[in-house]
Structures are given as C-alpha cells and as structure tokens.
Amino acid sequence: MINKSLLLTYLYLLIYITLSSGVILYNKWVLSPKYFNFPFPITLTMIHMGFSGAVAFFLIRVFKVVSPVKMTFNIYATCVIPISAFFASSLWFGNTAYLHISVAFIQMLKALMPVATFLVAVLCGTDKLRWDVFLNMVLVSVGVVISSYGEIHFNVIGTVYQVTGIFAEALRLVLTQVLLQKKGLSLNPITSLYYIAPCSFIFLFVPWYFLEKPGMEISQIQFNFWIFFSNAVCALLLNFSIFLVIGRTGAVTMRVAGVLKDWILIALSTVVFPESMITGLNIIGYAIALCGVVLYNYLKVKDVRATQLASESIPERIAKDWKLEKKSSDVYRPDSSNVVEGIGTTDFAVDEEAPLIPSSRLSHIGRTQQSSRNA
C-alpha cells in the first residue's frame, strides 16, 4: 500500500524542483538579449517584490487569511530593514548575472554559497572557525575555480555580480539568524512577504532610478503584461512551495533535493539555451565542489544529531513536547547548506529561491522562557 504522506512529500519536492528550475530559466529568457530582450534586472526584481507585497497585503488585510505579527518599530528598523536591504541586493546582483553568464555556470558558482555563509558567520561570531569545515570550504572553492577555468564563455563582470549576490545572500541569512530568531520572531511565508517585499522594493527603487530608468526611456522597451505577470506568479509560488517542502522534510532531504535540482537545471539550460555549452573541465570542477558540499552537509547533520542526543537528557514531559514541534535545528535553513536562492550546500538560489525568512518555531522551553520574561 502506498504511503500517502510519503507520496505527498515527493509531490511537494517535485513541485519545488519544477518551480525553482522554471523561475531561473524564465528569468534568463526574459532578461537575455537573444530572447525576450528585457535587459533590466532591477526592474524585473521590483516587479516580483511589488507583486508579492501586494498579494501578501490582500491576504492579510483584506481576506485575513493570516494575522500580522506584532511588529514594533524597533524590530522593523533594526531587523526587517537591514535584512530587506541584503535580500534586495542579492536578487539584484543575482539577476544581473543572467545578462553576462549562462544558467549552467551560475549554478556552478552557487556551490560557493556554503563558503560565503561560513565566512560571514565566522566574522559575525555566529559560528566558530573549525578546521574540518574550513578544509571543506577550500575544496569547494578549488572546484569552483576549476569549473570557472573550464568555462568557454567566461565573463568577469557576470562572475563578479553572481559572487557578490552570493555574499549578499549569506549576509541576509546570518542577519536573519542573529536579529530575528534571537528575538523569538517567527514569520510565515505570507507575513514575511508582507513585511520584507515592500521594503526591498524601496531599496531597489534607488539604483533603478539612476541605473535603469534612463535606459528604459531611451530604448522604448516592449512590455508584455502576461509575460511579467506569469513570471511574478511563478516566483511567488516558488516561495510558497519552499515553505511547504520545509514543513514536510528535514535538512538532509532538502539538501539532496537541492543537489538534484542543480544537476537537472544545468542539463535543462543546455537544451533551452543551446549557446550555453558545458565542458569536461566544468563538470570536473563542479563535481569536486559538490564533494566539498556533501562533506559539509555530513558535518552539519552530525552537529544536528549531536544536538538531538543532548536533548535526551531533558525531562520526559518536556522532551515529548519538544518532539511534537520540529526543533529549529531540524528545519532546513539555507545558511546551513547550499539555498535560496535559495534553495546552501546546494543552496537555494539567489533569485527568489530562498525563503525570505526561514521558518522558526519556539520549543516548549523557549516559549516558557519567553513568557516568564514577558511576565
């Protein structure tokens, strides 16, 4: 007999992989001068943010699907604004890279996501410098360098944009952990879009006004409503699908799905965009990088299991409560892997792949401590 729950999990994973790959290929097609020819990545990102923010507003304020969280001015100014700034930057730089380099090469560069996240976390003091992890990061970096050397259409500008976007995403992930999670604030996908998307839109407006607005006035670009509407809908659905998958799977499953998605996307991109060629050196370098990523995943999973074992010493009553709710360490977070993006170790890609705010739930102990502090 087929396990319906397992079947539903695989269905969610399939939807996530399909939407994630589709959004990236769609963005490339829209931005590429050889296809739809809309070479304005900031504008495209602003459309996504504006649409997502509007949908979230109607769901919360008009249809009241979910209730807004208690957001103080202090939390908004010190948490939401800086996170939104880095989120907007990661999308801006990541989408701009599509103008200069291929989708396949972009996915290979995204193997650097764990490296960027680890370095930023160490610098911010949220992680310790461990030599086993550091050596994995060196292995990933060497693989990416080899893959870049084998890239036929290597472009310095596109590579710099993509790597900058990766580090901006790493900063966002670490800031989310430091600022929001430590304050015990939990945002679901709708409320995260409600608070962060409009703020990101405003941050993007400044570079758009100076960098793209003059060019749009001169070029008299074509604007197809249905193209941009469907593109924004796909990006929004992808964000929701990530949270559905996170709610039904653990960290390991998400990381494996991310690796599978990257390979599928690399293969698909060579079919959809014939000019995107992959060399043997590309594959060798990417395989080396993935070895480092897999080892990094293994160490992270070991850390999670060690945390679980430590929790066994908690009194039985509390332990039962704790097991009913997924511990935050059991929930996949792009900062501990690839994403998203999106989607760390195979991180969720930068363009609308990573959830705006990783889902975090307070354990029984966390709620008890918080309620005692509030009292």
Tell me about this structure:
The model is unreliable at 322-375 (pLDDT under 50). The chain has 13 helices and no strands. It is globular and about 55 Å long. The chain is mainly α and 375 residues long. Helices cover 71% and strands 0% of the residues. Residues 360-375 have a biased composition (Polar residues). Residues 352-375 are annotated as: Disordered.
Major sheet size, sense and barrel closure = none
The proportion of strand residues reads: under 5%
H/E topology pattern: HHHHHHHHHHHHH
SS-derived structural category: mainly alpha
Shape: globular
Number of strands: 0
Number of helices: 13
Radius of gyration: 20 Å
Poorly predicted regions: 322-375
The helix content is over 70%
Instruction: Kindly report the average pLDDT value.
Output: 80
Distance between the termini: 51 Å
How would the blueprint of this fold be written?
Blueprint: H1 4-31, H2 41-62, H3 73-97, H4 103-109, H5 113-124, H6 131-149, H7 156-180, H8 189-219, H9 225-248, H10 251-272, H11 280-311, H12 316-324, H13 364-374
Helix pairs in contact: 1-9, 1-10, 2-3, 2-8, 2-9, 3-7, 3-8, 4-10, 5-7, 6-11
